[in-house]
Predict the 3D structure of the following.
Amino acid sequence: MSSIYKSKYSKWTTFITAAFVFAAFAPSGAEARRKRRKRPAATAPARQVNTKALQELMGAFKFGMSKDRVVKVLKTQLDERYKAKIRGMSDVYGQDALRREKVKKVKEVQASYTEFKGRKTGWDVSIIDDQFGHKSGESMLVYWEQNSSGANQRRFFFFHGGSLYKMFIVLDSKMLPVGKRNFATFKTLMSARYGDGKVVAPTKRSSALIDWATPDIHVQAIDKISFYGSFCLMISNPSVEAMVMTDRDGVRVAKKSNSITDSMIAGENDLPPSLDTNSNAVESALK
């Protein structure tokens, strides 16, 4: 990796040196204007989107799977992983402990199932708070996994109408050196693997990201390093994702309409509740 960066640095140094040499010997004044010609700016050839690599992000999962089917696939993966661990352990008590650990992990996945029906959850202010909506037929499972490189990461499975349509993976940024945990390095790694996607600059409401879109799969590499210390990948079924967005818009319109109706029913003579009535409870909570 260091040799690659050295190579890039040397090329950049050569480019700067050449620029100064050109400036020193370039013609000036009228001669320069006569000889000046417009030339297209040199750009690196765009790397095509690697559709196969994007599809591989799905792993053993498929869009349209039910919650139970996803849990079954995860259980199969855990069976294989723990089978190898148990086989390599001669201690009978240690083997039993591993079996209990495997069962516990499966139960944790099942217990993580959340339906977003309007009631606030612990996920409403979290790294995935922009990945779901309430009252639009959405639900979710969470799985802590360890990949083949030993990195710990979280995989969120999002369902719409009971069918898997999106996965959101929180990557282990510790796999990168501290000095390389930035969007520039992340972009370089992602583009080398998946091709040149559309880079979207950050806004007040969203993070910087790289977007790859094909008719069958939509992938985003999202920079959440500043707020949550992680980079993320979002993989979705584009057609269902569009339906989900439409459903969320419908919920927002209905909510706005209800707010207007409620204010009209309340009337002009209704006074807001006094802020002093609950002051003691607030003060006691802060003590």
